[in-house]
Design brief:
The structure holds three protein chains of three kinds. By secondary structure, chain B is an alpha/beta fold. Chain B contains 14 helices and eight strands. Chain C is globular, with a radius of gyration of 31 Å. Classes of the chains: A mainly alpha, B alpha/beta, C alpha/beta.
Chain lengths: 185, 305, 662
């Protein structure tokens, strides 16, 4: 087993730009978050371990692990944390960095992007456009969804022309402004 | 009292039966509401994966729209509710955040001041309309029907904390008891169904859904009732995959809360979108029709509410 | 002898306080500035004014330069006002002609820029005030040679014994029918595994037989008047309905009584009778009758079994509540703690599952005098596996942020006791940190490790009865993350013991008010200084000892009890207390007898009386007055002024600070 060298950091970890951000500093590693987490069993690093990685400045490792993607944002951890750490938001920040990085699973990244794209263009989730964007580049995915898809279709649960907002350009402008403020490319 | 209603994106699509049954039941209860004009998607469980600010600004736009009208904003989707109240809560406690959110909202020509009043559908039914009124409208008591009340995960922090207990909510149980149903002991009542993992990571999602279904079967529930369209979708659509994950076969009906309320009200199943449920709910009808004649008003009076 | 303006000679002393002040304030500049002020005969600065050489500096100047005012610019007066007052006294200068100027806590410690300028302003204000200071006489009052100890747990018992052994009279007041507190509920105690009852009952018996201790059980303090050395306390003695002087403690009444109630002593796990002693070794060994369960009382004379069977005729239903007034010189508050009720943390299943119990309930199960005669069983079944969950409601910002201090140790003790009583039992400890800091504690931890205890580092999220595998059927499952392995875990067990936080008693607020004490942020009562005055309080003459001050184990409790006894004896042996001279005084010519001062005073110092005059006027009982100034503010005519804080003195400060003539 390789010994990890911890190099001194020149900058503190800033997982989130916003002041709500760095509550992981308060984590005393009790494990209550992970014990409450329904998907921790499938994570490479449990939520508590992710907090520890952030404390140590090893955020890249946390990001690469993909743990953030398994967070369903149920907020059980944040609710119960005895030190007031906003665990869910920390996991979301790690997830965001994962999706923006080379470590992201391409299908999952496309899932998120397709979803958000329909909101950007219509102000509301557009099922057909989403399915096109998501499944077309990898039609094999459709195989797994065949049963569900058939059900939805035959029971009238795929909306073909649900209205969006009156002024979709405004929503798109909101997206761009958020990008600008957050300094995303 | 008149409300504003925030339907959420699933109402026209995957959650269509939820939407239909909500409208039918609220009409029967005489609740006056209008759909929030020009509402936008709250960001679901996806916006946080792209942008922290957007995950707050998208719901905030809806809150701001409701502020213009001034009425309480009601939503029947637990995830929408969570997003809206999270935005409300975070922005309230952080001036810097409020500034940034409003800078984003300015692009849409609106500002959020923080006076919006947000309500959950269950809260309105149980606390505003009242369980007495609900019990009065029951024409087909659900006696003999064993129901697992699935509260869902969007709990604790904000949802049930607002109008019930954070650690151990019972509002849903009380509502079902007012309809005459027997509420079974369901220890996984607040355990997450996996949300969008059923799509993005099927193996994990199926396992979580499987746990919930197993727990319902262990409790000898005839059906599961949920208050979230995404839970509804997950628990209905992936029973086969869940079965494979747990080495068994599942076929347990999962209803949206207003579908069950509507059945107890005697509303025709088609108005409640029951024909759209992926797991056929017909076996329940027989059970309900065969129920004994203990009226729900009595159930309420005996302290079950 | 009247002083003229020109006679005032002020000495100003600026302390460096090492680098605490000198690091931020330019002390040389400040000294030069002070020297230029009016009436200042000399201004000096020194590294540590409170030290011997520093004090000698002041003394020398007073003697050689004939100073009649001293201004010390240094730390807070709460630190060293007494020190410098003594210096003045030693040099034959009245101590009230000293003015302290705080340029540390209020200046150098809170400012980076502008500290020197502020210090100059503060010093000029102090000098201006010092000019108007007057010599005041302190009074000495005698101290009553008796001590009240409130609370009969181990802290109260120990304090009472030590004071009484010092030859002083002690009143020990205890709310329950017997002394013993929580300690007598315990089975064995860490780290020595002494039987708790075996070590505490001799002390309890000693209290009973001590000629200098008056024991009042089933009694409560309801009112405290007076001040240090001179307290008047009213005690309510609740009716036992049993005559203590006649009862022999034979116990037949308890045997014959047909009415049962939940035993508070057994934490509700067992029962007692309506006429009862809480446990067999009760002191005094005289039962009480519980009016809420006694049918004779509830139903007007029905029953009466105890009356019939008592051979001594000790049962007496005619007893009523009695109020007793005592006078004491010092009060030791030792009212102990409550264990938090973990029902609020529903996910741990307390009250939902009968096999989830608290630590105190487990002590009762282990105890030979407990509801199961010392067998660890729940509903008749003995557990083969037990989980002990640490930090329930402590180290948690939702309940109590503090660490409850004793739980890690008693959890280890429990593991040992379980191993002793149940052959082959498996014990799991769910902890976050193991806190074994005391003497012999680490050895105790090591011993537990060798007795087959499994330590899982992880705070459990849930205790559930929902089985997800065959091994879990019929068991309670503890859901946690094993943080050392980084692996979520489910551990099936037969019984779960929770270690809930020790918290302040439910009526801590009322007790604080009764004795004029403060509570810390965590709800326990506040000591005067966290390090140097652990048992004294802001209220002179009242001391707090034991868990009323914060969670602690028996060794620390006894140490504090002895400290409290030392404080009380020191006060009484001194024989007298000096009263602070900075009290209120009334100019009767201006007083109209409106009574607003009486209304507003918390300490009942002003009294408005006719005193042979045409209109009533107020007069201040200086022994009770704390010099807070509320009456002076409330007085509409300005008849009341506070010595050492006169209007003239305060306005002089304002004028100096603002530069505007007042």
């Amino acid at each position: 087993m390789a010994v990890q060298a911890l190099a001194p950091r020149s900058e503190p970890v800033r997982v989130m730009k916003d002041p709500l951000g760095n509550s992981f500093e308060f984590c005393y590693q009790c494990g209550l978050c992970t014990a409450s987490c329904r998907t921790a069993f499938a994570m490479k690093y449990t939520p508590r371990q992710v907090m520890n990685l952030l404390q140590l400045g090893c955020e890249d490792e946390a990001v690469a692990s993909g743990s953030g993607l398994l967070c369903t944002a149920c907020y059980s951890c944040t609710f119960r944390c005895p030190r007031g750490v906003a665990v869910t938001d920390m996991m979301a920040a790690v997830q965001r960095r994962n999706l923006a990085s080379k470590h992201a699973d391409s299908d999952i990244r496309r899932f998120y992007r397709s979803f958000m794209r329909t909101i950007e263009r219509h102000g509301r989730f557009h099922e057909v456009e989403f399915m096109t964007r998501y499944f077309l580049p990898n039609p094999l995915l459709l195989r797994a969804e065949f049963g569900v898809g058939l059900h939805l279709l035959t029971k009238g649960k795929i909306s073909l022309n649900a209205p969006g907002v009156k002024n979709p350009k405004a929503i798109a402008a909101m997206f761009r402004k958020a990008e600008e403020i957050e300094g995303r490319p | 009292m008149s409300y504003l209603y925030y339907p959420g994106c699933s109402g026209t699509g995957t959650g269509r039966e939820c939407e239909e049954s909500i409208q039918a039941v609220m009409r029967t209860l005489g609740v006056k509401w209008t759909e929030l004009e020009d509402w936008n998607c709250c960001g679901a469980a996806v916006a946080t994966g792209t942008s922290y600010l957007l995950s707050l600004a998208l719901p905030a736009r809806n809150l701001a729209l409701s502020e213009k009208v001034g009425s309480d904003l009601v939503t029947g989707c637990s995830r929408c509710y969570l997003n809206l109240i999270r935005a409300q809560h975070y922005i309230q406690h952080n001036a810097n955040l409020k500034e940034n959110v409003n800078a984003v909202l300015a692009e849409a020509g609106i500002q959020y001041s923080g006076t919006a009043q947000l309500r959950h559908l269950l809260d309105v039914i149980i606390n505003d309309v009242g369980l007495d009124t609900v019990a009065e409208k029951v024409t087909r008591p659900l006696d003999g029907l064993q129901v697992a009340a699935y509260y869902g995960c969007c709990q604790g922090m904000w949802t049930y904390a607002q109008f019930d207990s954070t650690e151990d909510p019972t509002c849903f149980d009380r509502l079902l008891a007012a309809l005459g149903a027997e509420v079974v002991y369901y220890p996984l009542k607040q355990a997450c169904c996996g949300g969008t993992l059923s799509m993005s990571k099927r193996s994990v999602g199926a396992s979580l859904i499987g746990d919930l279904l197993l727990a319902a079967i262990a409790a000898e529930a005839d059906c599961i009732v949920t208050a979230c369209p995404l839970c509804m979708f997950n628990l209905n659509s992936f029973q086969n995959e869940a079965g494979r994950a747990k080495g068994t076969k599942f076929n347990i009906p999962v209803l949206f809360v207003t579908q069950l309320i509507g059945l107890a009200f005697g509303l025709p199943p088609k108005t409640l979108g029951l024909q759209r449920n992926i797991v056929p709910p017909e076996p329940l009808y027989r059970k309900i029709a065969a129920g004994t004649a203990v009226s729900s008003a009595e159930a309420v009076a005996s302290g079950l509410k | 002898m009247a002083e003229s303006k020109n006679d005032v000679k002020i000495g100003v002393y600026v302390c460096h306080c090492g680098s605490n002040i000198a690091g931020t304030v330019d002390v040389e500049d400040l000294t030069a500035f002070a020297q230029e002020q009016g009436s200042v005969a000399v201004a000096r600065n020194y590294k540590f004014m409170c030290s011997e050489p520093g004090q000698a500096l002041i003394k020398k100047d007073i003697e050689e330069l004939g100073l009649n005012r001293v201004v010390v610019a240094s730390c807070s007066p709460r630190m060293h006002e007494p020190t410098f007052r003594r210096v003045c006294e030693d040099a034959n200068l009245n101590p009230y002609q000293l003015d302290m100027c705080n340029i540390r806590e209020q200046c150098s410690w809170v400012h980076k820029n502008g500290a020197t300028a502020k210090a100059k302003a503060l010093v000029s204000a102090a000098i201006a005030r010092a000019f108007y200071l007057e010599a005041l006489e302190t009074r000495e009052v005698p101290v009553t040679s008796a001590v009240l100890v409130v609370g009969g747990g181990i802290a109260g018992i120990q304090a009472a014994l030590k004071v009484a052994d010092g030859g002083r009279k002690v009143y020990l007041v205890e709310r329950e029918p017997s002394i013993g507190g929580h300690m007598i509920q315990l089975d064995k105690t860490f780290p020595t595994l002494d039987c708790s009852a075996c070590i505490s009952t001799p002390k309890m018996a000693a209290v009973k037989s001590h000629p200098d201790i008056e024991l009042m059980t089933y009694s409560e303090v309801v009112d405290v008047q007076g001040f240090v050395g001179n307290f008047r306390v009213t005690i309510r003695r609740k009716p036992r309905y049993v005559d203590e002087s006649l009862c022999t403690g034979c116990g037949i009444c308890q045997e014959k009584c047909p009415w049962k109630a939940e035993s508070e002593f057994d934490c509700g796990l067992g029962q007692r009778k309506a006429i009862y002693t809480p446990f067999p070794q009760a002191v005094p060994n005289v039962p009480v009758i519980d009016p809420e369960h006694c049918v004779y009382i509830l139903k007007d004379g029905k029953c009466g079994a105890c009356l019939k069977f008592c051979e001594r005729g000790a049962v007496d239903f005619s007893q009523t509540e009695k109020m007793v007034e005592i006078e004491v010189g010092a009060i030791i508050v030792a009212t102990g703690y409550d264990l938090m009720d973990p029902s609020a943390i529903t996910r741990l299943g307390y009250k939902r599952f009968p096999n989830v119990i608290t630590s105190l309930e487990f002590e009762r199960l282990c105890s030979a005098t407990g509801p199961t005669g010392g067998h660890i069983t729940v509903n008749g079944k003995e557990p083969k596996s037990v989980a002990i969950i640490h930090c329930v409601g402590s180290r948690d910002e939702k309940y109590h942020t503090y660490c409850s201090r004793v739980c890690c140790m008693y959890a280890l003790k429990f593991a040992h006791l379980i191993g002793e009583k149940i052959e082959g039992a498996q014990v799991y400890q769910f902890y976050i940190d193991m806190r074994c800091y005391g003497k012999g504690f680490e050895d105790f931890y090591q011993r537990a490790s060798s007795e087959g205890v499994t330590f899982v580092r992880g705070r459990p999220a849930q205790v559930t009865d929902f089985a997800m595998s065959p091994e879990e059927k019929g068991k309670l499952v503890v859901v946690c993350e094993n943080t050392l392995l980084g692996r979520p875990m489910r551990v099936p067990v037969d019984m779960v013991i929770l270690c809930p936080a020790m918290e302040a008693r439910a009526d801590a607020k009322e007790v604080a008010r009764l004795f004029n004490l403060s509570q810390s942020a965590d709800g326990f009562l506040l000591e005067r200084h966290a390090k140097l005055e652990p048992v004294a309080t802001a209220n002179d003459g009242v001391f707090i000892v034991g868990c009323v001050q914060g969670p602690k184990d028996i060794p620390d409790t006894v140490a504090q009890a002895l400290a409290g006894a030392a404080e009380a004896l020191s006060l009484i042996d001194r024989g007298s207390v000096k009263l602070e001279a900075a009290t209120a005084t009334v100019n009767e010519a201006l007083c109209h007898g409106c009574g607003r001062c009486e209304e507003i005073c918390e300490f009942h110092a002003p009294m408005v009386r006719l005193n042979g005059r045409l209109i009533p006027v107020s007069s201040i009982n200086e022994a009770l007055c704390k010099g807070c100034g509320a009456c002076a503010v409330a007085c509409p005519t300005g008849a009341i002024s506070i010595r050492h804080f006169t209007l003239q003195q305060i306005l002089a400060e304002v004028e100096a600070l603002s530069g505007v003539p007042v």
